[in-house]
């Protein structure tokens, strides 16, 4: 580096090689995160054992099952059971998604922490009080 802070040809090549290596590592990490999140499924049940739901990493409902208890439950009770199970599943998915990102990208990575926090916030919803977006109860 000369007195003005400008890299010489060798320094510039070394800097670019290092930068390219970091970009390549980030691309590998991004593919790994995407693959693991693509396979993520979370199942949760309401406290009364009426409804069991399975969601994917985006919070989308992919399966719902009802126990025999549904036969004796009022419709509003069933509705709350489903919403509570979805809320629980989304909270678990938020925790697991965040951990996947941090495991792969590292907790020391500002980008990894930002991505992990954003994903968890999206799954939990804007209030972060456990209620998922569109899931009131």
TrEMBL record:
The keyword Repressor does not apply. The lineage of its organism: Bacteria, Bacillati, Actinomycetota, Actinomycetes, Micromonosporales. Residues 127-137 have a biased composition (Gly residues). It comes from the Bacteria. Residues 118-137 are annotated as: Disordered. Pfam families: YbaB_DNA_bd (PF02575). Keywords: DNA-binding. The keyword DNA-binding applies. One of its GO terms (molecular function) is DNA binding. This is DNA-binding protein YbaB.
